[in-house]
Amino acid sequence: MQELWIDYLNAIDVAELALTDEEILTAVEKALADQGRGETVIEPRVHLVPESSDKGHFNVLRGYVKSLGYAGVKVVGDFVDNYKHGLPSELAVLNLFDPETGIPKAIVDATAITDMRTGAVTAIGAKHLARKDSKVLGHVGARGTSYWNVRLLDHLYDFEEIRVHSRRPESRNAFAERLEQDLGKKIIVTDNWEDCLKDADILIEASRLPEPTPLFKTSWVKKGAFVVPYGTMSALEFDLTDIMDKVVVDDWGQCGPGRPYGALRRHVDEGKVTEETLHAEMGQIACGARPGRESDDETILFWHRGLSSTDVALGAAMVDKARAMGLGQRLRFR
């Protein structure tokens, strides 16, 4: 029997790798550009709901990135009450495979990958779609992906003002303390959505609502702003897309009609946002096939659902770096 071995990286290994901001952004932007060139396969995510969506569910993401030579499947739980158990709301495992033979190549704790790649997609969206002189960030939400949203956006923009808000005071205060320590700048903690978002240059909505609730008011968005809503349940007013000069998504296959969840779910299902009215997918912009922001006056919305290709890309980057550093374990498969 031929011996087969799998690289295994647990959460401790992933933390010790300490991927830099640039390493994260580079890996994710390359995967986006590959997507724009048609060199990836991204299957729409599927869901497993054990009991009810009120408790939580599993997302199953499947993708292939040709340039990396990996196919991957990530399973990530999304359970809103995990904080009561001292756990992050999202825990994930990524499996990487050889696309030529199907041989399993790696198993990675993907909890950090989920957070990092989500923040990277938000930041790369801003790189191409936000005003270059953006100085004020408003961010609703304090989950794991939120940290990487703010960290990687600030890496690109070095904001003069960062405002944060989340439903629980202890959550938003701890979030702000972590950001202040890591970014070395004052974070403004707000106790309501309006003070956090109104007239910001970049507005991020990463809330955890139990059901769609229009808490994000269209009137708070100034001309020329960049808006990124990606809560599982929509927090938007229905007319938000009416003021947008461009609407961009990460992958229409995951955002189109008939898919559950997402910030623009109602907008798509009721025909307000369609494949024809869409400006572009982010990958088309990243590879130069479509323009990003073309003037300071454009108000732009970017909705991302999460791309399996970016999970594969970050997982591959981690496996490569771990081998170079001598981290992780080798598990015999057969």
Automatic annotation (TrEMBL):
<dbReference type="Pfam" id="PF02423">
    <property type="entry name" value="OCD_Mu_crystall"/>
</dbReference>
<protein>
    <submittedName>
        <fullName>Ornithine cyclodeaminase family protein</fullName>
    </submittedName>
</protein>
<dbReference type="InterPro" id="IPR003462">
    <property type="entry name" value="ODC_Mu_crystall"/>
</dbReference>
<dbReference type="InterPro" id="IPR023401">
    <property type="entry name" value="ODC_N"/>
</dbReference>
<dbReference type="InterPro" id="IPR036291">
    <property type="entry name" value="NAD(P)-bd_dom_sf"/>
</dbReference>
